[in-house]
Amino acid sequence: MSGTERRFFTTPIYYASGEPHIGHAYTTILTDVLARFQRQDGKDVFFLTGTDEHGQKIQDEAEKRGVEPIELCDLMAERFEEAWKTLSISYDRFIRTTEDEHKAVVTAFLQRLWERDQIYEGTYSGWYCVSDERYWTEKDIGDDRCCQVCGREVTYVEEKNYFFKMSEWQDALIKQIEDNPEWIVPEVRKNEILGFLRQPLGDLSISRPKSRLSWGIDLPFDTDHVAYVWVDALINYLTASGAIDPSQPTDQQGFDDVTASWWPADMHLVGKDILTTHSVYWPTLLMGVGLPIPRQILAHGWWVVGDTKMSKSLGNVVDPLALRETFGTDAVRWYLMREMPTGGDASYTPERFLTRYDELSNVLGNLASRAISMISKYREGVVPDAESDGLNAAIDQALADARASMDDLKVHEAFAAAMDLARAANVYVEERQPWAQAKDADQAASLDETLATLARVLVVLCALFQPVAPEKMHELANRLGLEGVPTLDEAVTVGLAGQTVTPGSPLFPRVDPGWTADAE
Ligand code: ME8
Q1: Which atom from ligand 1 is nearest to the alpha carbon of 274?
Q2: 3-state secondary structure of 368
Q3: Are 290 and 391 contained in the same domain?
Q4: 354 and 290 together in one domain
């Protein structure tokens, strides 16, 4: 392997029982932005997403539609892949849990747990939520007998189950969280998990009897049972990492040495609804087979409209994903990233969307248009060979702030820093007044300097905004005469003198969507 630093990012794998929606889009765009930023910063990145295709929810939905489960999964996997294409998601691998490779890794993983005496047979009796695929205790469900996550009615089941000895790993998990305060971010979520771990941790049921649910992966040691869908789903991260080779004899499958693979993941990005599965079930399962655990878990908040979590049809509210038809993909990405403080909740309103779009259009788009058109008008499109360090301090500041914010996972702040640089460049134009410099032959050298500085700042902005606005920044790079968007390091060193720029229509044109923006 090369000495380049590597980063492995994952999104949740989304249930193939329904269409992609804005919530899925948010997590996936956030992951894409982090992945693109790290690539821009010279890292070797592996970005994984995919679909979760087994379990009761899928079986029930397929039955409702009168199709086979795999037909439903094929359809939905295609829908997700199409959605990610339209939203410019640069994933490296799209995994489906019905793939043979994944099934073989799950089988090897369970076999390994079994051989390490981490699994025992028992009876489960209690309440079960089909929709969330979760067991609940009498105490959890209260008098109304409803699921604590989705509010749907739960059903009573009594069945033979295999259990993973999760309780054995409670102390190790608490130590991991306490010793590594940044392992779960944001802090409020870490504290929730620590609070949860103050109670004794139970063992985890990892199987479902085939008599009730057949759509799953067989347990290697009892084929009358399939793996619990969450265990199956979490293992996707390991499958895609390439760490495990199930075709080898059990002692050579890779459980003892993962160095030749992408494992462990650098970051699992998830919504706060699935933090327990990722920060309790998953690491303890990994401890059970003796594998390293993921390096970090980021649990973000909800997009809401009023008091409602946005994860289905929005009725009369303008769907943010539909806005891409009017404003373009990059505008939707920008809004979602800039408006939600990473980790917190955010309220979606079309008015705020427009306010954020105006920022793109009036600050960044306007700067690009005026700088390129002045180079065309005053210097026939050729970037002058002159001093270009008029905005050096602002450039250094923006790069340092953006990198620090990305390291802190404050994506909204990283792009605020990038936008501040564009603002500073607009102020520079007002101060230098290139239109006045152009009228005075004595100021030709000063005009050269102004234009060279503006060309230089545009290259840096192009590199900084690329993770959130890949389409438009690609276009901007072309207009600046570059072959592609430079990395952050290249952007500060690339020489533009003598390069020909090409004017074009506004990058972020004014559009009248039929409503007005609120005040900033
Ligand atoms: O839970 N705001 O899949 P899922 C922000 N298959 N994000 C939201 C959101 C909202 N309003 N609504 C949904 C599953 N999300 C499992 C995962 S992983 C091994 C298995 C996002 O289709 C958020 O990332 O229900 C949440 O965690 C995810 O969609 C749930 O997607």
Answers
A1: 27
A2: helix
A3: no
A4: no
Give residue 15 CA to ligand 1 midpoint distance, Å.
8
Average pLDDT, the chain: 93
Give the residue, by CA position, lying nearest to ligand 1 atom 18: 12
In a domain, 397, yes or no: yes
What is the distance in A from the centroid of ligand 1 to the CA of 23? Answer: 7
Q: With H, G, I as helix, E, B as strand and everything else as coil, classify residue 127.
A: strand
**224 CB-contact burial (10 Å; exposed 0-12 / middle 13-18 / buried 19+):** exposed
Look up the domain containing 398 and give its range: 349-491
Q: Are 379 and 281 found together in one domain?
A: no
pLDDT in tens, 122-155: 998 889 887 777 788 888 888 888 988 888 899 8
Residue 162 burial (C-beta neighbours within 10 Å; 0-12, 13-18, 19+):
buried
Give the Å distance between the CA of 14 and the centre of ligand 1. Answer: 6
The number of distinct structural domains making up the chain is 2
Task: Judge whether 181 and 135 are in contact, CB under 8 Å.
Answer: no
Per-residue model confidence as pLDDT tens digits over 418-472? 999 999 999 999 999 999 999 999 999 999 999 999 999 999 999 999 999 999 9
The tokens describing 309, both together, are 């979590």
pTM over the 0.90 mark: yes
